[in-house]
Amino acid sequence: DIHGDKIRLEGDGFLNALARTLYGGDAVPELAQGDSPAPSDMSALLGGAPDAAARAVRLALGRAAASVGSREGFQRAVEARLLLVVDQFEEALTPATERDAFARALTALAATGAVWIIATLRSDLYALFQASPLLTALRDGGAQLDLLPPEQSELAEIVAGPAAAAGLKFDRRHDGAGLDEELAKASDQPGALPLLQLVLDALFEGRDPASNTLTWAAYDALGGLSGVIERRAEATLSALDAEAA
Questions:
Q1: How far apart are CA 18 and CA 24, in angstroms?
Q2: Using an 8 Å Cβ cutoff, are 23 and 29 in contact?
Q3: pTM for the complete prediction?
Q4: CA angle at residue 186 from 185 to 190, to 5 degrees?
Q5: CA–CA separation, 26 vs 44, rounded Å?
Q6: Which of 43, 48, 79, 154 could serve as 19's disulfide partner, Cβ 3.0–4.6 Å?
């Protein structure tokens, strides 16, 4: 049985974010049955005694496994594992004191063998990660995957694949130019994938409902890939003005 959740590094500190994640959702709510009944208790334990916090998590996973085994009537022993995904790990790299406390907590959890940790990190901020011996040691004890920028053929699949699965079509100009081809071509530059996501969302909102087609007219109205940020910013500011009024 694998429990899992994503750590959201926001609010009042990395350890508090980790503790809230452990207690919430599909992670390890069984922690509340132990000696640390509240996330604030676990946060303090993670910061002051990370090995003890990790043992508490392992015991809670044992209770979760026993519950599953009893409920399902398994005749074999059941083990529970926890998968933690730390998205946008760059947010945890400063300040250094919080970074290292967070790293010690993650190291203790990983050392139990019952917790698997996946972290995503922007390559341009990798030097900040390397500045922490604790984090580099944690990396060296696991595995690292460098995700290279997609090639043109992969970009074409990124654009066309999900649209085909959703039953969407791409518009074509009179000269035969396909909108999907234009999107893949325009996205072949550093940092373009987030823009592509915004454009595809906007094109879906402005699609032709009769034919379920993503249209050139909607793309041109956005100002292409480069214009979507400006239009999104204008819409956000307009909404703020309306709320203020």
A1: 10
A2: yes
A3: 0.70
A4: 105
A5: 22
A6: 43
Counting beta carbons within 10 angstroms of the beta carbon of residue 229, is it exposed (0 to 12), middle (13 to 18) or buried (19 or more)? Answer: middle
3 pLDDT band, cuts 50/70/90, is very low
Task: Return the pLDDT at 245.
Answer: 47
Long-range contacts made by residues 20-29, C-beta under 8 angstroms, separation at least 24? 21/84, 22/57, 27/3, 27/82, 27/84, 28/3, 28/57, 28/60, 28/61, 28/64, 28/82
Note whether 200 and 170 are within 8 A (CB).
no
pLDDT in tens, 48-104: 999 999 999 999 999 999 988 888 888 888 889 999 999 889 988 888 888 999 999
d(CA 103, CA 130): 12
| DSSP annotation of 151 | P
The CA distance from 36 to 8, in Å, is: 21
